[in-house]
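Sequence only, no structure available. Ideas?
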Amino acid sequence: MNVVARSRRAYLPKLAREVCVPPRNIRKAHSVSDVPRLAASKLEDSSDRVHTTAVATALREKGVTIVDLKFPDASSQYLRGLVLGLNQYHGHGLPITHSAERGWFWDVTPKVKTAGFQARSESCLDFPWHTDCSYESDPPQFFALHVLRADRNGGGTLSALNVSLLMGKLKSSTLDSLSQRDFQIKVPPEFAKGIPSITGRLLGRADEQSNVYMRYRADIVQPLSSRASDALRELNQSLKSERTMDAGSGQLRLSPEVLPDNSIVLMDNGRWLHARNEVRDPKRHLRRVRWGRRQFGDV
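Reply:
I predicted one. Tokens follow.
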């Protein structure tokens, strides 16, 4: 580390020092080719100790992994068994019920909007950088998407951005502000449960492995002070720039070629932001499950 880097690191607040990463090898460490890619040859692999350990290790070390299924699984029984295996063998939290009607799994397909409110993921619209359930006090720690039918028309590409890398591009004062309980996060009307909003931080505490956790969705976050407003503005501008950058600049572009039919991507919901471009295939079909909880210390 050079003198300038050491000086900047020494200046950062405690949380910022813990979450910043050196700029060296960022591109190499977070390219699609570096994402751990595993194969499941049979349904029973979902409860196999060696297989679940490989998945758990990839999530712990990289925060993302892809599993290619070598057998048909239209009902996502492998994914159900895997999440339960991660709970049994590796201490992951249990799956989170989406609703009384949907249970653990949520089928993500484009739907024509009728009466009421529609979840953004169920539209064909571009969905900018976000983390899932960012409006909850204890958002899911992990999520997975089983690709039942990839977009055949060149759309629906999932992008992912490493949060630690993003934090390394922001000012130390911004990192400190994002870690304060100084933001109102509105609950989208389609997910209303009687609480209109929560107040909390966007940037969570680093763990023993120096990972940083974030929750974010631009259209529902409101700053509660001028300092928070400045921090949110810098974060929004940085994320807007990231959407226009080429793949390999610290973000993953998981196109249908990377995530074909019968593949599964598993991701740490706090260590990676994700986005999706416009869906062009009305028959695109993913199945999502979320599990575990991450505390942000909201009020």
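The helical segments are 3-11, 14-19, 26-29, 49-61, 77-90, 163-167, 172-178, 226-244.
Hope that gets you unstuck.
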